[in-house]
Specification:
This protein has helices at 2-25, 37-64, 85-106, 113-120, 123-136, 144-170, 174-194. The chain is mostly helical and 195 residues long. The protein has one domain (2-194): Four Helix Bundle (Hemerythrin (Met), subunit A) (Up-down Bundle). It is globular and about 65 Å long. The N and C termini lie far apart (73 Å).
Length: 195
Protein backbone atom coordinates (compact mmCIF):
# COMPACT_ATOMS: atom_id res chain seq x y z
CA UNK A 1 0.00 0.00 0.00
CA UNK A 2 2.83 2.38 0.83
CA UNK A 3 4.37 2.00 -2.63
CA UNK A 4 0.99 2.32 -4.31
CA UNK A 5 0.26 5.50 -2.35
CA UNK A 6 3.57 7.09 -3.26
CA UNK A 7 3.44 6.01 -6.90
CA UNK A 8 -0.13 7.21 -7.46
CA UNK A 9 0.74 10.49 -5.74
CA UNK A 10 3.63 11.08 -8.16
CA UNK A 11 1.50 10.15 -11.18
CA UNK A 12 -1.29 12.42 -9.92
CA UNK A 13 1.20 15.30 -9.62
CA UNK A 14 2.35 14.74 -13.21
CA UNK A 15 -1.22 14.55 -14.51
CA UNK A 16 -2.32 17.62 -12.54
CA UNK A 17 0.69 19.49 -13.92
CA UNK A 18 -0.31 18.53 -17.47
CA UNK A 19 -3.90 19.66 -16.79
CA UNK A 20 -2.66 22.94 -15.34
CA UNK A 21 -0.33 23.66 -18.27
CA UNK A 22 -3.05 22.79 -20.77
CA UNK A 23 -5.46 25.12 -18.97
CA UNK A 24 -2.88 27.91 -18.97
CA UNK A 25 -1.99 27.56 -22.65
CA UNK A 26 -5.55 27.52 -23.98
CA UNK A 27 -6.51 30.80 -25.60
CA UNK A 28 -9.71 32.72 -24.95
CA UNK A 29 -11.28 30.86 -27.86
CA UNK A 30 -10.53 27.54 -26.13
CA UNK A 31 -7.89 26.54 -28.67
CA UNK A 32 -4.29 25.49 -28.86
CA UNK A 33 -2.35 26.09 -32.05
CA UNK A 34 -2.99 23.24 -34.46
CA UNK A 35 -5.80 21.59 -32.49
CA UNK A 36 -9.54 22.07 -32.86
CA UNK A 37 -11.50 23.30 -29.85
CA UNK A 38 -13.26 19.97 -29.21
CA UNK A 39 -9.92 18.14 -29.04
CA UNK A 40 -8.51 20.59 -26.51
CA UNK A 41 -11.57 20.54 -24.27
CA UNK A 42 -11.77 16.74 -24.48
CA UNK A 43 -8.08 16.34 -23.64
CA UNK A 44 -8.37 18.77 -20.73
CA UNK A 45 -11.47 17.03 -19.34
CA UNK A 46 -10.08 13.50 -19.73
CA UNK A 47 -6.72 14.38 -18.18
CA UNK A 48 -8.55 16.05 -15.29
CA UNK A 49 -10.69 12.99 -14.66
CA UNK A 50 -7.68 10.66 -14.95
CA UNK A 51 -5.80 12.82 -12.45
CA UNK A 52 -8.80 12.67 -10.11
CA UNK A 53 -8.81 8.86 -10.33
CA UNK A 54 -5.13 8.75 -9.38
CA UNK A 55 -5.74 11.18 -6.50
CA UNK A 56 -8.58 8.97 -5.19
CA UNK A 57 -6.35 5.87 -5.41
CA UNK A 58 -3.56 7.82 -3.71
CA UNK A 59 -5.87 8.81 -0.85
CA UNK A 60 -7.39 5.34 -0.43
CA UNK A 61 -4.03 3.56 -0.41
CA UNK A 62 -2.72 6.06 2.17
CA UNK A 63 -5.80 5.50 4.35
CA UNK A 64 -5.66 1.70 4.09
CA UNK A 65 -1.91 1.51 4.66
CA UNK A 66 -1.55 0.20 8.20
CA UNK A 67 1.75 1.96 8.87
CA UNK A 68 0.09 5.15 10.14
CA UNK A 69 -3.47 5.99 11.14
CA UNK A 70 -5.12 8.34 8.64
CA UNK A 71 -8.93 8.48 8.85
CA UNK A 72 -10.84 8.68 5.56
CA UNK A 73 -12.50 11.90 6.75
CA UNK A 74 -9.07 13.58 6.85
CA UNK A 75 -8.96 13.36 3.06
CA UNK A 76 -11.82 15.86 2.71
CA UNK A 77 -11.85 17.67 6.04
CA UNK A 78 -8.60 19.63 6.22
CA UNK A 79 -6.25 19.49 9.20
CA UNK A 80 -7.99 16.63 11.02
CA UNK A 81 -5.42 13.88 10.50
CA UNK A 82 -3.48 12.83 13.59
CA UNK A 83 -0.50 12.06 11.31
CA UNK A 84 1.25 14.99 9.56
CA UNK A 85 -1.76 17.21 10.27
CA UNK A 86 -0.60 20.29 8.35
CA UNK A 87 0.83 18.60 5.24
CA UNK A 88 -2.04 16.14 4.89
CA UNK A 89 -4.43 19.01 5.58
CA UNK A 90 -3.01 20.80 2.56
CA UNK A 91 -3.69 17.67 0.53
CA UNK A 92 -7.31 17.74 1.71
CA UNK A 93 -7.61 21.43 0.77
CA UNK A 94 -6.25 20.69 -2.69
CA UNK A 95 -8.61 17.75 -3.10
CA UNK A 96 -11.62 19.84 -2.04
CA UNK A 97 -10.71 22.59 -4.53
CA UNK A 98 -10.21 20.00 -7.26
CA UNK A 99 -13.55 18.35 -6.48
CA UNK A 100 -15.29 21.73 -6.65
CA UNK A 101 -13.77 22.37 -10.09
CA UNK A 102 -14.73 18.89 -11.34
CA UNK A 103 -18.29 18.96 -10.00
CA UNK A 104 -18.99 22.42 -11.39
CA UNK A 105 -17.50 21.40 -14.74
CA UNK A 106 -19.77 18.35 -14.87
CA UNK A 107 -22.73 20.62 -14.05
CA UNK A 108 -21.54 23.44 -16.31
CA UNK A 109 -24.62 23.59 -18.51
CA UNK A 110 -26.77 24.12 -15.40
CA UNK A 111 -24.65 27.02 -14.09
CA UNK A 112 -24.09 30.53 -15.31
CA UNK A 113 -20.76 31.11 -17.01
CA UNK A 114 -19.78 33.52 -14.25
CA UNK A 115 -20.48 31.02 -11.43
CA UNK A 116 -18.70 28.21 -13.26
CA UNK A 117 -15.66 30.37 -14.00
CA UNK A 118 -15.40 31.62 -10.40
CA UNK A 119 -15.26 28.07 -9.06
CA UNK A 120 -13.12 26.76 -11.92
CA UNK A 121 -10.47 29.39 -11.22
CA UNK A 122 -9.93 27.68 -7.84
CA UNK A 123 -8.08 24.98 -9.78
CA UNK A 124 -5.25 27.50 -10.15
CA UNK A 125 -5.01 27.49 -6.35
CA UNK A 126 -5.38 23.70 -6.08
CA UNK A 127 -2.18 22.92 -7.99
CA UNK A 128 0.34 24.84 -5.81
CA UNK A 129 -1.34 23.53 -2.65
CA UNK A 130 -1.06 19.97 -4.03
CA UNK A 131 2.58 20.60 -4.96
CA UNK A 132 3.46 21.78 -1.44
CA UNK A 133 1.59 18.77 0.00
CA UNK A 134 3.59 16.49 -2.31
CA UNK A 135 6.90 18.04 -1.35
CA UNK A 136 6.50 18.01 2.41
CA UNK A 137 4.06 15.24 3.39
CA UNK A 138 6.88 12.72 2.94
CA UNK A 139 10.56 12.88 2.15
CA UNK A 140 10.19 11.10 -1.21
CA UNK A 141 10.17 14.23 -3.35
CA UNK A 142 12.89 16.00 -1.37
CA UNK A 143 15.86 14.31 -3.04
CA UNK A 144 17.00 12.44 -6.12
CA UNK A 145 15.06 11.98 -9.32
CA UNK A 146 11.72 12.80 -7.70
CA UNK A 147 13.03 16.18 -6.54
CA UNK A 148 14.10 16.96 -10.11
CA UNK A 149 10.66 15.84 -11.28
CA UNK A 150 8.89 18.08 -8.73
CA UNK A 151 11.08 21.06 -9.65
CA UNK A 152 10.40 20.37 -13.34
CA UNK A 153 6.65 20.36 -12.68
CA UNK A 154 6.90 23.67 -10.82
CA UNK A 155 9.06 25.22 -13.56
CA UNK A 156 6.59 24.09 -16.25
CA UNK A 157 3.61 25.59 -14.41
CA UNK A 158 5.47 28.84 -13.67
CA UNK A 159 6.51 29.02 -17.34
CA UNK A 160 2.93 28.41 -18.49
CA UNK A 161 1.61 31.04 -16.09
CA UNK A 162 4.21 33.57 -17.28
CA UNK A 163 3.30 32.87 -20.90
CA UNK A 164 -0.40 33.31 -20.10
CA UNK A 165 0.20 36.61 -18.27
CA UNK A 166 2.34 37.96 -21.10
CA UNK A 167 -0.25 36.91 -23.68
CA UNK A 168 -3.04 38.51 -21.61
CA UNK A 169 -1.09 41.74 -21.33
CA UNK A 170 -0.78 41.84 -25.12
CA UNK A 171 -4.49 41.24 -25.61
CA UNK A 172 -6.54 44.29 -26.24
CA UNK A 173 -10.17 44.21 -25.12
CA UNK A 174 -12.48 43.40 -28.02
CA UNK A 175 -14.23 46.78 -27.87
CA UNK A 176 -10.93 48.62 -28.35
CA UNK A 177 -9.44 46.41 -31.11
CA UNK A 178 -10.82 48.33 -34.09
CA UNK A 179 -9.76 51.74 -32.79
CA UNK A 180 -6.30 50.45 -31.85
CA UNK A 181 -5.84 48.84 -35.26
CA UNK A 182 -7.18 51.92 -37.09
CA UNK A 183 -4.85 54.23 -35.18
CA UNK A 184 -1.95 51.90 -35.94
CA UNK A 185 -2.84 51.98 -39.66
CA UNK A 186 -3.11 55.78 -39.68
CA UNK A 187 0.17 56.23 -37.82
CA UNK A 188 2.14 53.89 -40.06
CA UNK A 189 2.28 56.18 -43.16
CA UNK A 190 3.27 59.16 -41.00
CA UNK A 191 6.15 57.21 -39.48
CA UNK A 192 7.42 56.10 -42.91
CA UNK A 193 7.24 59.63 -44.37
CA UNK A 194 9.14 61.13 -41.45
CA UNK A 195 12.08 58.76 -42.02
Amino acid sequence: MWYASRATGVVALLLLTAVMILGLLVTRQGRLPGLPRFAVSGLHRNLSLLAAVFVVIHVLTAVFDGYVDIPITASVIPFTSPYERFWLGLGAVSLDLMLAAIVTSLLRRHLSRRAWRAVHLLAYLSWPVAWVHSMFSSGDLQHGVLLILAIGCAAAVVGGAAWRLIAAARDVPRAERVSVQMSAVHQQPEETTSR
